[in-house]
Write a structure and sequence with these properties.
Length: 426
Amino acid sequence: METKKTLRRISLRSFDQFDLSPDMMRALERAGYERPSPVQAGLIPLALDDQDVVGQARTGTGKTASFVIPILERLDEATTPLSPQALVLVPTRELALQVHAEFEKLAHGSPFRSVAVFGGAPFRAQQTKLQQGIHVVVGTPGRVIDHLQRGTMRTEAVWCVVLDEADRMLDIGFRPAIEKILKRCPTDRQTLLLSATVPDEVRMIARRYMYRPILVNLSPYQVAADTIDQYYFSIPRNRKRSLLLKLLEREQPSQAIVFCRTKIQTQRIYRFLLDQGVPGVGCINGDMAQSARTSMMSAFRSGKVKLLVATDVVGRGIDVSGISHIINFDIPELCDDYVHRVGRTGRMGKEGVAYTFVEPDQGEFLTSIEMRIDKLLKRDEIDLPDMGHVPDPHDFKGGPAIEAPADKPAPPPKPDARRKRYRSAL
Ligand code: AMP
């Protein structure tokens, strides 16, 4: 894969440099986008130039618009029923809706139409839209395959495929579906792949299905944004709920996500907060019907819900700009999940704070997170009644701690364990 030093030649000053259409310039102004983010400055010129690109970028950096803009700029106005010109594959339904909303926002004033297709939503309505002729399909791989197999969508007119959050799609087992879809698309298409990390599996997809892709690394090694203050509490498991209440009382977050490891745990914490009379609490997990998830997300986006209890899979794509606090009620076992959770706040340079509850014997997770983000979390404390000295998790010596010699990073989690855990969190 080629690596191009694009960053030196690009300017963050204005969108003028890309020679965009008047419609697009107006839509950008209307959206309040004054200047390109670094990810946009890096990707837009390459995408407009018809290059295949692997862009290493996390969410919250403006990565969606970095492919939405060049696609909208190059669409043909005429449509053929069932045959979109661009296809964007995303890992979750929430992300499908968000990417679709970005298309709608930036297509304002132009004739281009997009549709979001994902499981759990009525097939018929999606079919009708496809039949009417749309320019762009944004969908989860499973539902896209359904449409292809039932003949309600065709791929011969597709000239651009985007794999958004490719690492996540592969993690949750979408690889066979992605490969099937890519094989059905014209070989001379453009492929853009966006991913927070570029592990071997992502490289393999790039090697097999992309044409001389250029790797653009727009994620600094310091993966968690510098604008995010990150703290941990050392807390026994049976005191975590009390700590949560005290922390909410102390911090008065304007909007927060409370991350739990399992669906059942999100339910328990949600009920607990309701019972305690905490206002504006919501819960979202993969067990809920799609319509309930969608309305919960819009309640969160509108600010009606202030505190959202979520699992990793559902929480990952959440793009709500006012999130002031992330609370990791359960410490994530995977470092990447930590990075993604914390990335929900501090978006587009705003300030945010993240708190992680660490049980005294979970030092191994804390240490591997710190190694991943190359930064030590600061210890915070809150007085709870009847709580004596709680040891620091860093000092825990028992159990299967990850041995990490000073000059060697901790071993990555085993791929099989990862896949299983994501499934159970879905
Ligand atoms: P994303 O990384 O695509 O999830 O985008 C994060 C947020 O940044 C979204 O709310 C976008 O609407 C917003 N955004 C994207 N590009 C820009 C820009 N150039 N200027 C200001 N906000 C932007």
